[in-house]
């Protein structure tokens, strides 16, 4: 029986793929990958491209997930893409769906899995975890995510930040993901919450790629030039 495997492909550096991920990708009949638009590359596909053996005729299917917050567009996209994925498996192909970082952190896989499990409860599904951007960044910048009794909050920056002030008051470490274009709003929230100026402030952009940028300073040193306008950005702010 054909199966569906979701592979977390880590933050961008192909050397950070797990052995299990590499084996699954090499064994797949069909590799499915998310892209935000027909004209845009799939980041996940770029991470694994060196593993795709053209002589084996592996089929590549790009699934388009538009970058929108419109719930009805999102839901119809999830249904459509999950149907494409499930039908391919039901046709007898071993399908690998690749996604950046880990499949269970802010990933399109979460919605694919939910739909397919509901509509095809007998389908064999395996998930291979991937290295999360947060830990890639911690390793590169040398800042611990949490130590001892510290509490850490992970916040998606592109949504309503009204509750973040209270969270910031009660956390030692704050990690902001999902879209560097919103980080300027985050700085104000942190300052309003009384995060001290001497807090560690570290920002990483396009980690694991040739155009990776990493900066580390204090919250008090941040200015407009420090901030990033890239979607693939991560911000760690930590009390000292
Ligand atoms: C849709 S979430 C996916 C998270 C992913 N599943 C993970 O485990 O890291 C995308 C966000 O993750 C962060 N991210 C993922 N990969 C990154 C990278 N290579 N460099 C910087 N940020 C990254 C960014 O905050 C980006 O906006």
Protein model, in words:
Helices cover 30% and strands 22% of the residues. The protein is α/β, with parallel strands linked by helices and 240 residues long. The chain has a five-stranded parallel β-sheet, with helices on both faces. Strands 6-7-10-8-9 form a five-stranded mixed β-sheet. Helix 2 (43-48) links the parallel strand 2 (30-35) and strand 3 (59-64). S-adenosylmethionine (SAM) binds next to strand 8 and strand 10. S-adenosylmethionine binds at residues 11-12, 100-102, 105-107, 132-133, 177-179, 204-208, 231-234.
Give a short synopsis of this structure:
This protein has 240 residues and is α/β, with parallel strands linked by helices.
Tally of DSSP helical segments: 7
Number of separate domains:
2
Q: What is the CATH level 1 assignment of the largest domain?
A: Alpha Beta
Query: Uncertain regions: pLDDT < 50 for 5+ in a row?
Result: none
**Overall radius of gyration:** 19 Å
- Give, in spatial order, the strands making up the sheet with the most strands: 3-2-4-1-5
Question: Per the principal axes of the C-alpha atoms, what is the gross shape?
Answer: elongated
**SSE pattern:** EHEHEHEHEHEHEHEEE
CATH third-level topology of the largest domain: Cobalt-precorrin-4 Transmethylase, domain 1
Residues in helices, as a percent range = 25-40%
Provide the structure class. alpha/beta
Q: Tally the beta strands.
A: 10
How much strand?
A: 15-25%
- Separation, N- and C-terminal Cα atoms: 54 Å
The bound ligands are:
S-adenosylmethionine
CATH architecture of the largest domain: 3-Layer(aba) Sandwich
Largest sheet: 5 strands, parallel
Corresponding CATH superfamily of the largest domain = Tetrapyrrole methylase, N-terminal domain
